[in-house]
Amino acid sequence: MTHSSYSEENNKAFSILGESIIETTVALKLLKLDVDLSSKDISDRIAEISKVETSCAVDGMRLGLQNVVRVSSNTDSSTSSIVCGAFRSIFAAIALDTGKSDDAGDVFLAVHGGAGGLFSV
Questions:
Q1: Which pLDDT tens digit goes with each residue over 34-66?
Q2: What is the residue extent of each domain of the chain?
Q3: What confidence tens digit (pLDDT) does each residue in 7-21 have?
Q4: Pick from 25, 36, 30, 11: which is nearest to 100 by CA?
């Protein structure tokens, strides 16, 4: 996994796709639990789960991604934004490998704590 500080060939596009997969997965799961949930409630919950400094980076650190992402020598690989980008990239890679974003969403739910993880950060 490569950060943009290390090389122009990096995982930024994967991070963008992974973020979209996470957001879609969360919205679908929330609506399955309560179809009458307001768009504001869904947006707020997605924002909470996607927070770089808390949820996203915490999940990434728990997986040890700070130890595998390549960064330049003057960049700290344990920075929240770097760990979060790496975390998001994983789900893009899964979706591309399997050809199914649902597979990536299922892995996200398993890593983040399933349906219960949707309500705790």
A1: 999 999 999 999 888 877 777 888 888 899 988
A2: 14-117
A3: 566 678 888 999 999
A4: 25
Q: Name 2's bridge partners.
A: 70
Neighbours of 33 (CB within 10 A): 11
Under 8 Å between Cβ of 58 and 70: no
Single pTM value for the model? 0.83
* Residues 59 and 18 sit within 8 Å (Cβ to Cβ): no
Say if residues 53 and 74 touch (Cβ distance below 8 Å).
no
Domain at 14-117: CATH code: 1.10.1520.10
Q: Is residue 107 within 8 Å of 115, Cβ to Cβ?
A: no
Q: Residue 113: which of 67, 68, 63 has the closest Cα? A: 63
